[in-house]
């Protein structure tokens, strides 16, 4: 019996090691097979792109995938400008949106009434102009809930404003009440707030120069490259159609800073005979982390993908946010075609996926 004991232990240890190895292999295999289409590299551009600025200290050594922050919601307040102080809340005495950011952080930050260390909420600003009715209120967008929020009161930090912020935090950011996520009773929303679904793809590019010059330089450059490519793509498509070389494809409209929260359609994966306009929101945003991997870009694809009542295949990335890093101007055509149009994630640029 004593002579058999070491053999049994060795066998048990070997079996346990084999089991652990098999489990690791299974997990690795699962992680290697995401629930969305992936391509390894970004295709080479088919048009002339702007050169990459020289002298930017971009980290090409560390592994990129997994560097996107883990978060439940991304709240972005519209400001109509493309740069802000390094700490946005430091502008609370000079800008309404600075005060709104400070108020949100006061409620959500450490020591705040709604602070939850296990529920990370990214709070930032954008160059979108917003859709609020007057100058005494602000607008914001929320992802991946895909909600447009308008008429957020900011005047005099009044009690009514505090009540509105608490309502937004409880209903949208912390999810304490469910009705706003799918079908909700609009009568429960305190006036004058308005909350509507976002059905338009939104592309955010970090441009926070006061925080880090790398994103400050690359952000506007990537935005301009994206707008230029969309315009070129539309002109080429129209030219080919007029010459009888192909069917009319979707006409993409770059909505620069002018946020469009409800579009007749979102994405079509197949060409059609009907000429359709598809809006794409493009905005610059404040710090989202990872300046060493500039340019930083987030693509939010809304969950609803029907186009003007026609049936089309669901977009493979519907309801998700795709975080890209180390984006250069030469990557812009490939990102638009592969990710926005076809719904494929580019592995070499990927920081993470949410949703």
UniProtKB/TrEMBL annotation:
InterPro entries in UniProt: Aim32/Apd1-like, Thioredoxin-like_sf
SUPFAM superfamilies in the cross-refs: Thioredoxin-like
Domain of life of the organism encoding this protein: Eukaryota
Annotated family: Belongs to the AIM32 family.
Name the UniProt record assigns to this protein: Altered inheritance of mitochondria protein 32
Record organism: Exophiala mesophila (Black yeast-like fungus)
């Amino acid at each position: 019996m004593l002579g058999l004991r070491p053999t049994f232990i060795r066998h048990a240890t070997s079996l346990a090691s084999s089991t652990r190895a098999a489990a690791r292999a299974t997990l690795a295999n699962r992680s290697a097979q995401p629930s969305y289409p992936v391509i390894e590299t970004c295709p080479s551009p088919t048009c002339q792109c702007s050169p990459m600025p020289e002298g930017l200290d971009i980290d090409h050594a560390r592994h990129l995938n997994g560097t996107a922050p883990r978060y439940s919601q991304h709240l972005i307040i519209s400001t109509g400008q493309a740069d802000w102080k390094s700490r946005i809340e430091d502008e609370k005495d000079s800008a309404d949106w600075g005060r709104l950011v400070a108020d949100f952080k006061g409620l959500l930050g450490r020591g705040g009434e709604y602070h939850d260390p296990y529920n990370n909420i990214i709070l930032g600003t954008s160059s979108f102009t917003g859709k609020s009715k007057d100058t005494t209120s602000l607008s914001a967008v929320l992802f991946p809930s895909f909600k447009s929020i308008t008429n957020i009161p900011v005047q005099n930090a009044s009690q009514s404003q505090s009540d509105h912020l608490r309502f937004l935090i409880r209903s949208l950011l912390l999810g304490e009440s469910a009705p706003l996520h799918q079908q909700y009773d609009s009568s429960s929303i305190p006036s004058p707030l308005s909350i509507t679904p976002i059905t338009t793809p939104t592309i955010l590019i970090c441009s926070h120069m006061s925080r880090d010059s790398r994103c400050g330089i690359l952000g506007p450059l990537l935005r301009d490259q994206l707008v230029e490519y969309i315009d070129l793509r539309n002109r080429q498509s129209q030219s080919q159609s007029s010459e009888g070389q192909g069917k009319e494809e979707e006409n993409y409209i770059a909505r620069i800073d002018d946020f469009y929260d409800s579009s007749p359609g979102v994405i079509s994966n197949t060409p059609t005979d009907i000429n359709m306009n598809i809006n794409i929101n493009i905005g610059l945003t404040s710090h989202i982390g990872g300046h060493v991997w500039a340019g930083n870009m987030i693509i939010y694809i809304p969950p609803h993908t029907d186009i003007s009542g026609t049936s089309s295949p669901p977009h493979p990335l519907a309801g998700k946010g795709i975080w890209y890093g180390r984006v250069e101007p030469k990557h812009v055509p490939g990102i638009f075609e592969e990710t926005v149009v076809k719904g494929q994630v580019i592995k070499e640029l990927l920081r993470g996926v949410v949703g």
